[in-house]
């Protein structure tokens, strides 16, 4: 599929913009390359959309989905897709992304980002659904690697190989969540270098960084903490091997004061500035 | 059933219904057991739905406190599986759940508060609609008024308790020295959204009767006649002005007379 390139994101640091900071960001207009929001919070009209359109007057906005369920075996939710299309028309986002995960199968809905076995069957299935999303939106979708707490014995390839093949088949881009990869390294013994080597670097359009928490030996992707030194180190390695890309700080629970978030973004910016491709 | 669907179905059952997962499906990990992994997903599932409920029912959270709300949400989640991938859809039947929930028997107004809060939640996330204006209504020839079929936004809530006053008292802008007598009596309220703002306003019994007839699809003529029959004092013009001001009327069509 020949899709408009997704290079509108400024190659600088941004933050995930959440409700507690809407007012302050609009009042103080801090220096920020761009912001990212969760699609589903803006699917209606009213105050949320109005606020986002005001934000859009000052910052490039990236739309990040948590509910599409690209790997779900329930039929692709066309209502959800239409709502996303309306949102895109209104906001004109600089990027649109979704997670490589599922949330609905066999009559069950699990409102979470769930892993699935990386099989040839899943590959055709997910590729068809990405095709449909890109066709409907008329533009490239960025697909984000997942943080996982378990993996499947049936997997026939790694997540990195799966993503690389999705890019080849659908022309989608990659949103590389560096913290998610770190979580998988610790939890599942994933080989970080192999992941970084196998994904097509030119398809990587954005990075995510966040903090995790630890539960009974398992790293949980809670986005409630500053970025850990180990994740900064992996980010630096990624910058050296893939190059600088627009980088987002995500913080979704125990959300701190805005300056804390901005300071995290500044740390990412510093590392991007110090990186020579 | 495809292999993928079968695997996802087993995984979903493990999370939602607490069924065991076959270790043939799930690989082993260096630092924790498979049970721990599944438990993390179960906690996420319940935690996300709890947060969705707390977001939809902020006044109930204040009324019962965080800890009791967590218990209440846990029970609600146990009996009400999620059915929408949009989390803002979760929690629609809280009012009915609370009506049968023994531990809140002493708070008889809670189900009505849930009805009111859900109506506010739905209004907040509703699509933008341009409210009907007096000017556009004025263009209808008077002879056709009776055939008007009005589309509405907003929901009528009837309660034996002053839930709107309780709701108002728990909006952050309100002062704290608020006293309320539950015997203040019943009320009828309209939940609507004017521009970006969700509003709860009181409705007279006749205005509410008329609006609900309009919402059930009756034409303006039929609804007005039947409302006047029950409430001879009903003032159509005042009701229209009031509902237009609340942005509760959105568009109209003309019933074709046969």
Key structural traits:
heterodimer, A: 277 residues, alpha/beta, TIM Barrel, eight-stranded parallel beta barrel, two-stranded antiparallel sheet, 9 helices, 12 strands, 40% helix, B: 258 residues, mainly alpha, Outer Surface Protein A, domain 3, three-stranded antiparallel sheet, two-stranded antiparallel ribbon, 11 helices
Question: Can you characterise this structure?
Answer:
The complex is a heterodimer of chains A (277) and B (258). Chain A has 277 residues and is of the alpha/beta class. Chain A has one domain (13-270): TIM Barrel (Alpha-Beta Barrel). Chain A has helices at residues 22-28, 46-56, 78-91, 120-137, 159-170, 178-188, 192-198, 229-242, 258-273, and strands at residues 13-16, 34-38, 61-64, 95-99, 102-105, 108-114, 142-144, 173-177, 204-209, 213-215, 218-220, 247-249. Chain A has an eight-stranded parallel β-barrel with strand order 1-2-3-4-7-8-9-12. By secondary structure, chain B is mainly alpha-helical. Chain B has eleven helices and five strands, in the order H-H-H-H-H-H-H-E-E-H-E-E-H-H-H-E. Chain B has helices at 3-16, 34-56, 58-64, 66-79, 94-99, 110-125, 134-138, 163-169, 205-215, 220-230, 236-245, and strands at 148-152, 155-159, 187-194, 197-202, 249-254. In chain B, the strands form two sheets. In chain B, strands 2-3-4 form a three-stranded antiparallel sheet, sandwiched between helices. In chain B, helix 6 packs across helix 8. The longest helix of chain B has 23 residues, at 34-56. Chain B is elongated, with a radius of gyration of 24 Å. The chains are: A alpha/beta (277), B mainly alpha (258). Chains A and B meet through helix 2, strand 5, strand 6, helix 4 and helix 6 of A and helix 1, helix 2 and helix 6 of B.
